[in-house]
Write a structure and sequence with these properties.
Blueprint: H1 15-26, H2 44-54, E1 62-65, H3 75-92, E2 96-100, H4 113-127, E3 130-132, H5 134-143, H6 161-173
Parallel strand pairs: 1-2, 2-3
Helix pairs in contact: 1-6, 2-3, 3-4
Length: about 180
């Protein structure tokens, strides 16, 4: 079957790889390397425990943080951990930081996602971080009458190739 794989393990089409390619094309004379420290299914709590090992020790120039899709549902716990990550990124790196809001999810998966997105925007603004607001873009797509589950590989929460391209395009808006 010639249909492209649209699964969360379709490595070449994930947003950070598409973004890397777009950056390389825009800045032809610049070497772009990416360290993907994301772990499938991890939450902001796990990210907080790994921030030193998986991010800070690399002395990054740019950090992309997509940390709201997998919860936790407890918004106080979410805010506490996201804020601790923001503090570490601000104090322990010289990196530019971009908070990336998530894609929409199916209604049954939504839970406290709206609140987590709001907290992400609030904390990014407090720390002077950039925001790639993918969530708003997905909301606009939905308002146009498009069934967003068609952009979800598992019809629940993981984006298709097109969904990953939306992430990459939102990131590139910050580089225009």
């Amino acid at each position: 079957d010639a249909k492209p794989v649209e699964h969360i393990t379709d490595i070449g089409n994930v947003y950070h790889e598409v973004f890397k390619l777009m950056l390389s094309e825009k800045y032809e004379r610049t070497s772009v390397s990416v360290v993907n420290s994301g772990i499938s299914g991890d939450s902001v709590v796990g990210m907080n425990t790994r921030i030193e090992r998986d991010v800070i020790r690399y002395f990054p120039d740019l950090v992309l943080l997509n940390a709201s899709l997998n919860g936790p549902e407890d918004v106080n716990l979410y805010e506490k951990n996201l804020r601790q990550i923001a503090i570490r990124l601000k104090n322990d790196t010289q990196a530019d930081v971009i908070f990336i809001t998530p894609n929409l999810v199916s209604e049954g998966m939504k839970g406290t996602l709206d609140q987590r997105v709001s907290l992400m925007l609030k904390i990014a603004n407090e720390f002077g971080f950039c925001i790639a607001d993918t969530y708003s873009t997905w909301q606009e797509i939905q308002k146009q009458g498009i069934d967003i589950t068609l952009l979800l590989a598992n019809t629940l929460n993981h984006p298709t190739i097109t969904g990953h391209q939306i992430y990459a395009m939102e990131l590139m808006k910050l580089f225009s």
